[in-house]
From TrEMBL:
Protein name: Sporulation protein
Residue ranges occupied by any Nucleoside transporter/FeoB GTPase Gate domain in the UniProt entry: 49-145
Keyword Membrane: yes
Pfam families, per the entry: Gate
Organism per entry: Paenibacillus validus
Keyword Transmembrane helix included in the entry's annotation: yes
The entry's keywords: Membrane, Transmembrane, Transmembrane helix
Transmembrane segments: 12-31, 43-60, 91-114, 126-147, 153-171, 304-325, 337-358, 398-420
Length: 428
């Protein structure tokens, strides 16, 4: 970790970003037509898939923070998330948004919470690691039904994606800094006031400290959400151009020659296609998922190794989203190197889990009623296309899913608080 920290020092990061910007400018000058078409592809992906998925949740996060509801919700979720992950209850809201809207919505929320002092550095870094997820819409609808023409395959990928993230979160919990985890973020003891009393007290206190009128708050929330989305769109367009420029440098050809020389039973064209798909997935998750699904065979008959590589790329998340996370947390002391380490861990766990559980999970979902559950999206069985499909119709289902996830968390948290209070009473 110390070596990685020195590698990603501010000076090196500045140098790397400067070199990337220079490479981007050179690519645009040398290949203007290609740069234009690539940027349009990134813009299309942003407008049709990312913008509708993130905008409601970015606005909602800012609104709830200003109204004090975000702080109060943390009180209700405190028992569950302190027990499970050793983070404040407000982390439940982050996880609900990350699970519903996908990356980088969690990072946007965590950056604001850390600046407000609602999370310690260690808590913020662990939440940032586990909240960098793809949404069920992407995994099941786009990758599963759209790219692979198989809802069971999408469900299996989703189970592995979220299961590996949970395993990583539990591993990080065991290494949590106990000195910082012992306190509640609200600095209140359970015996000081009742559960609901603390909820109302926190709500009123946070609302009074914010002080903005509802109209002002709404305007700020919309402005902030749109501004964040423009940042995301800019990164997506930039990395789309870089992605198309890489093959022109001869890098893929050089790597292909090495792979063909080392692996005797793979052809030149097959190696080039596979390396291009892997490179695409390393840089951009959505385009990488599409490229990788074109390399693996049908879910029922293909080797698990190709799907393990696909799972690892989905867990990695792509350098494009990593840059977005960096921009949302740049004003905080959250260490980016720890986030990158978590991405490698998530990818490794997802790779191993896919090798072990791909066929059993696929068979289970194929034999069960899972396909009928996702019948409303079966119209995409012809394949996903940015020209024909978009994410706007999914806004209402995603908001319903978000509310359902929060409700389940609240019920479990109340149950956990009841058990804790009951156990404390018996000891007394």
């Amino acid at each position: 970790m110390p070596r990685l920290s020195s590698l990603f020092s501010p000076k090196f990061t500045t140098l790397l970003l400067g070199a990337s910007a220079l490479a981007l400018v050179i690519s645009i000058i040398l290949f203007p037509d290609l740069a234009f078409q690539s940027s349009l592809q990134g813009l299309q992906l942003w407008w049709k898939l990312v913008f509708p998925a993130l905008l409601p949740f970015l606005i909602l996060t800012e609104m709830l923070r200003g109204l004090g509801a975000l702080h109060a919700l943390g009180v209700l979720l405190e028992p569950l998330f302190r027990i499970l992950f050793r983070v404040p209850g407000i982390g439940g809201f982050v996880m609900a948004i990350a699970f519903t809207a996908g990356m980088p919505a969690g990072a946007a929320a965590i950056g604001g919470m850390r600046k407000d002092g609602q999370l310690t550095r260690d808590e913020g870094e662990r939440l940032l690691a586990v909240s960098h997820l793809l949404s069920p819409v992407i995994l099941i609808s786009v990758v599963g039904v759209g790219f692979l023409h198989s809802a069971p395959a999408g469900l299996a990928l989703a189970v592995i994606h979220y299961g590996s993230a949970l395993l990583m979160a539990l591993a990080h919990r065991l290494r949590a800094e106990r000195a910082n985890e012992a306190r509640s973020v609200y600095d209140t003891q359970p015996g000081e006031r009742g559960f609901l009393s603390r909820f109302w007290h926190t709500l009123e206190d946070a609302r009074s400290r914010d002080g903005r009128t509802f109209g002002k708050l709404l305007g700020d929330a919309v402005s902030s959400g749109v501004q964040q989305l423009f940042v995301i769109g800019g990164y997506m367009m930039m990395f789309s151009v870089l992605l198309q420029a890489i093959p022109l440098t001869g890098m893929i050809d050089g790597l292909t020659s090495i792979v063909v020389a080392v692996v005797s039973d793979i052809g030149q064209g097959e190696a080039a296609s596979l390396l291009t798909a892997l490179m695409t997935g390393i840089i951009e998750p959505h385009l990488g998922a599409y490229a990788m699904t074109q390399q693996v065979g049908p879910p029922g008959s293909a080797s698990s190794l190709g799907y393990a590589a696909l799972s690892a790329l989905l867990a990695w998340g792509g350098l494009s989203t990593h840059a977005q996370v960096r921009s949302f947390t740049a004003a905080t002391d959250l260490r980016f190197v720890r986030f990158l380490s978590a991405r490698l861990q998530h990818g490794g766990i997802a790779f191993v889990l896919t090798l072990l559980a791909w066929r059993p999970l696929l068979q289970y979902f194929q034999e069960g009623a899972a396909v009928s559950t996702w019948a409303p999206i079966a119209a995409w069985n012809g394949g996903w296309s940015l020209e024909q499909n978009q994410g706007w119709p999914f806004i209402s289902p995603m908001m319903l899913q978000f509310g359902s996830v929060l409700l389940v968390m609240l019920v479990l948290s109340v149950f956990a608080a009841f058990l804790f209070r009951r156990g404390r009473g018996r000891k007394a």
